[in-house]
Amino acid sequence: MAAERLILAREQRRDTFLELIGAARQRIILSMFRCTDFKIMDALADAQERGVSVELLLTQRAKGWEKRIRELGQYLESMGAKVHRYGEPRIKYHAKYLVIDGSRALIASMNLMKRYFEKTSDFLLATDDPDVAASLERLFRHDIEHPGQPVPEGLSPRLVVGPEMSRARLGGMIESARKSLVIADHRITDRDMIVLLEKAEQRGVRVVIFGKNSLARFKSHGRAMIVDGARAMIGSISMAPPCMDLRRELAVTFDAPGLVAELARFLDESRARHPAETLMPVAVAVESGHDDEHDDEDEKESDE
C-alpha cells in the first residue's frame, strides 16, 4: 500500500512543499497557479543547482495577475527552470500538483503565497502511489503538448480531472451517499449540484456544508468531501459552473480509514468552533443571481 499523508495544519504546508522539493534527485514537475513565496522559489533554485531538472506549467489566465505571471515565468527561467505557459489562454489552468522523480506526488488546493500558508483552510495530500504520480506526469505532458484537448485516457481512477470528469465524479459521489455528506466548498453555486445535494437530504442523507469563514475561523479555500465517513476527496474543484465546465482542475480521492477519519476529525473540530453553513443559504444565493465568475477569491488575490 502506498504511503500517504494528509496535511491540514497551516504550519505544515510550506514545510511539506520544501521537504518534497528538497528530496528530489532527478526531476521536478510543478503546476503553479500563483506564487510569491521566495522560500519555495529558493528551494526550486537549489534543486536546479544540484542538477535536478525543474519544469513548471503556468496558467496564462488569472485576472489581475497576467503581468505578474509573465514576470514569474521569466524569473523561474532565469534560474534555469523550464517554464511552459498553458497553450490555451482562454482557459484557466487551476490544477495544483507537484511530482518529484516520477514517484512521489503532492495534490493541493492552495496557491504558493503567504496567505495560503497562514490564513486559509486548505488541504494537501502527499502520496507515494506510483499510479497517481505517473498519471500526473502524463497529464502534465498532455497539457503542454495538447492544451485544451480532452484529458488522456487511462489515468489513475483516484484522480478527478476537470472539466471532463468534474460533474460525473462529484455528482456520482453525492448520489452514492446513504448516510452522510460532509463538504467543504465555499463556491457551491452550480444548480445541478445543488439539486443533487437537495435530493440527498430528501432521501435521508445528513448533509453538512462548510462555507466561507466556517473552518476554524480561517477563510475557506480548499475543497473537500467525505461520503458516509468512508471515502473522501480533496482538491481544487468547486461545485461552481466555471470549475465544473471550463477550468483545468484537479482532485484526488482516498479511502484509507485513517486518512478519512483524520479529515473528518479536522472538520468536526472546526464545526465545534463555528457552526457549519446549511445548504439553504447557498441555494438562496444562487436563486438570487449569485455569479461565481465575478466573485472568486482566486481572481482577486494580492501578493500579501
Summarize the structure in short.
The chain is of the alpha/beta class and 304 residues long. It has two domains: 4-156, Endonuclease Chain A (Endonuclease, Chain A), CATH 3.30.870; 161-294, Endonuclease, Chain A (2-Layer Sandwich).
Q: Would you identify the CATH H-level superfamily of the largest domain?
A: Endonuclease Chain A
Give the C-level CATH assignment of the largest domain.
Answer: Alpha Beta
Distance between the termini: 40 Å
Count of spatially separate domains: 2
Low-confidence stretches: 276-297
Inertia-based shape: globular
Strand content: 15-25%
CATH architecture of the largest domain, by name, is: 2-Layer Sandwich
Fraction of helical residues: 25-40%
Order of strands across the biggest sheet? 1-8-6-5-2-3-4
The Rg value, from CA coordinates, equals: 18 Å
Query: What profile does the largest beta sheet have?
Result: 7 strands, mixed
Q: Which structural class is indicated by helix and strand composition?
A: alpha/beta
Oligomer: single chain
Give me the CATH fold name of the largest domain.
Endonuclease, Chain A
